[in-house]
């Protein structure tokens, strides 16, 4: 089994830390804790609303019930026993302001909260202050709020246990670069291995002897002073099964796909291992299906499609071995060995618009794929590495003439690596009509008698009819102008526009959750908002299509 996993070194951790995002869990929306177990009650705190006497909790999803209003940013929620496991969005709306949505994770495991995060007078920085972990698995949720802060936990482990620490700090929109030490009570360090496929690295180690151990959690950059209450962490600690990824990484809707699961402690065997299983995808599934394997408490996204799905057919390492593809098609491939290159061939007509998409890093593959289109002579016509706001390439390209074209895929670091963890999904099709809208703000305040704007980004491809944008569900007393964006047939384009809101002079204070809808050529799309960090990439924390439009109280 091949995981691209490495022992931790100070230099390696520093390199990861220097790639940290901006602080997304800022005062505008930070919430703690960042999740809860099904069937429990939790007290949530939104520090930015500490001066607000009463606010309303809004939840994107089902199964979380607020137990009354939030007073000065604090309130209780009840999580239903049958609430869906996974991520929801929570935010507070007050008389004059609203927080941005923040992820709240519902799970099946008990949650142990950092004592210091609950009580500033508490301490868990040293072994003699360590919080006791009575039973595994458990989720640790805390904050590394001051320079040099270390949170220490203590637990009993057995010889040959494979201890896994599944980190979800970036998933909860925190800028945390979490470091972990596993030590016995004498201070001897147990070598820990790092799996860095995700933005949140996973740590694991093999326990050398029965006994008591301490977990030390810290922010890698804390000696730089770049920490605060936004430096949150959420970590699952287990000696049981944990799912890493599956290959193939997706399958067609309405069918069952046989997969190999890679992870830790699978099938009752400690350490890295594999498990074979089947994944049944409902016919009405979306583009991603959460799955888990072997009793693991975590899930991954199994990609789905409505196209014909093919397996990569080796040998296809050179242009003359290029695998012919029908259009449309989805190929499940892997860079199986160092210096592997995967070539594919498509036949196009002049002015055909080819759309070629890679899913790799976004599915937690190690593969950093580059994509090149070449003509029959081998001349490179277009090349793409990472698309803006994505870690994977996408090519939208118009064929200049009838003929066969080759598509060359390589891993950017492929000279030195290969194996099942370098998987990808390759979507190839002639462009179809496409319409997407991104809301660049998630909350807008409009004073009585004034105007405000909702900034929007409209993505279109091969549309024949103009795009109409309108707001649905506005508060009483507010109107919105309808916006039209010109269609661009036979091409893809991105347009910046805005929806202007006008409040009547006598509009009463209040708010509504509003959707901005776009229609064109029989297509319909709602504007979505996603939390973003450096470079515009999303944190992977989910999206919302419900925008707060607020008439503030005087």
Work out the helicity level.
Answer: under 10%
Strand order of the largest sheet: 1-16-17-13-19-11-9
Radius of gyration from the alpha-carbon trace, in angstroms? 25 Å
Give the biggest beta sheet: 7 strands, mixed
User: What is the C-level CATH assignment of the largest domain?
Assistant: Mainly Beta
Terminal-residue CA separation: 63 Å
Named at the architecture level, the CATH assignment of the largest domain is Sandwich
Average pLDDT: 91
Number of helices: 2
Assign the CATH topology of the largest domain: Jelly Rolls
What does this structure look like?
This protein folds into four domains: 234 residues, Jelly Rolls; 64 residues, no CATH class; 122 residues, Sandwich (Jelly Rolls); 118 residues, Immunoglobulins (Immunoglobulin-like), CATH 2.60.40.10. 39% of the residues are buried. The protein has 554 residues and is mostly beta strands. It is 2% helix and 49% strand. The longest helix has 9 residues. The N terminus is likely disordered. The protein is built from two helices and 47 strands. A hairpin with a 5-residue loop joins strand 31 and strand 32. The strands form eleven sheets. It has a seven-stranded mixed sheet. Strands 37, 39, 41, 43, 44 and 47 form a six-stranded mixed sheet that branches.
């Amino acid at each position: 089994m091949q995981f691209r996993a490495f022992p931790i070194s100070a230099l390696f951790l520093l390199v990861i830390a220097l790639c940290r995002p901006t602080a997304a869990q800022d005062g505008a929306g930070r919430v703690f804790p960042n999740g809860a177990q099904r069937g429990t009650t939790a007290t949530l705190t939104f520090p930015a609303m500490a001066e607000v006497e009463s606010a309303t909790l809004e939840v994107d999803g089902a199964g979380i019930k607020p137990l009354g209003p939030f007073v000065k940013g604090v309130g209780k929620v009840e999580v239903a026993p049958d609430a869906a496991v996974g991520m929801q969005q929570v935010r507070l709306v007050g008389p004059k302001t609203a927080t941005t949505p923040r992820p709240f994770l519902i799970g099946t495991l008990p949650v142990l909260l950092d004592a210091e995060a609950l009580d500033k007078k508490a301490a868990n920085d040293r072994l003699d202050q360590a919080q006791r972990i009575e039973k595994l698995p458990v989720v640790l949720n805390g904050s590394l709020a001051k320079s040099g802060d270390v949170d220490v936990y203590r637990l009993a482990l057995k010889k040959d246990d494979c201890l896994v620490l599944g980190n979800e700090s970036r998933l909860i929109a925190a800028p945390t670069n979490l470091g972990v030490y596993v030590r016995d009570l004498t201070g001897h360090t147990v070598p820990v291995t790092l799996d860095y496929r995700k933005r949140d690295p996973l740590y694991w180690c093999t326990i050398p002897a029965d006994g008591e151990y301490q977990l030390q959690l810290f922010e890698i950059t804390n000696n730089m002073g770049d920490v605060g209450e936004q430096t949150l962490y959420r970590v699952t600690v287990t000696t049981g099964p944990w799912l890493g990824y599956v290959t193939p990484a997706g399958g067609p809707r309405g069918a069952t796909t046989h997969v190999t699961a890679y992870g830790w402690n699978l099938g009752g065997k400690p350490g890295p291992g594999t498990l074979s299983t089947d994944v049944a995808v409902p016919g009405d599934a979306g583009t991603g299906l959460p799955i888990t394997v072997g009793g693991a408490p975590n899930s991954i996204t199994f990609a789905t499609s409505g196209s014909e799905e093919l397996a990569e057919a080796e040998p296809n390492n050179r242009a003359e071995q290029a695998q012919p593809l029908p259009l449309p098609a989805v190929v499940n491939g892997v860079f199986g060995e160092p210096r592997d290159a995967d070539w594919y061939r498509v036949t196009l007509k002049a002015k055909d618009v080819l759309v070629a998409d890679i899913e790799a890093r976004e599915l937690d593959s190690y593969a950093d794929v580059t994509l090149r289109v070449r003509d029959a002579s081998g001349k490179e016509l277009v090349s793409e590495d990472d698309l803006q706001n994505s870690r994977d390439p996408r090519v939208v390209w118009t064929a200049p003439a009838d003929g066969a074209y080759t598509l060359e895929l390589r891993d950017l670091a492929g000279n030195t690596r290969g194996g099942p963890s370098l998987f990808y999904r390759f979507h190839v099709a002639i462009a179809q009509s496409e319409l997407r809208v991104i809301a660049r703000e998630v909350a807008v305040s409009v004073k009585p008698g004034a105007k405000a704007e909702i900034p929007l980004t409209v993505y279109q491809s091969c549309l024949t009819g103009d795009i109409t944008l309108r707001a649905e569900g506005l508060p009483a007393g507010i109107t919105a102008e309808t916006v039209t964006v010109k269609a661009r047939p036979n091409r893809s384009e991105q347009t910046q526009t805005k929806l202007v809101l006008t409040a009547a002079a006598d509009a009463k204070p209040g708010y509504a959750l509003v959707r901005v809808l776009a229609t064109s050529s029989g297509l319909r799309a709602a504007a979505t908002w996603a939390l973003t960090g450096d470079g515009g990439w999303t944190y992977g924390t989910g999206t919302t299509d419900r925008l707060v439009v607020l008439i503030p109280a005087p």
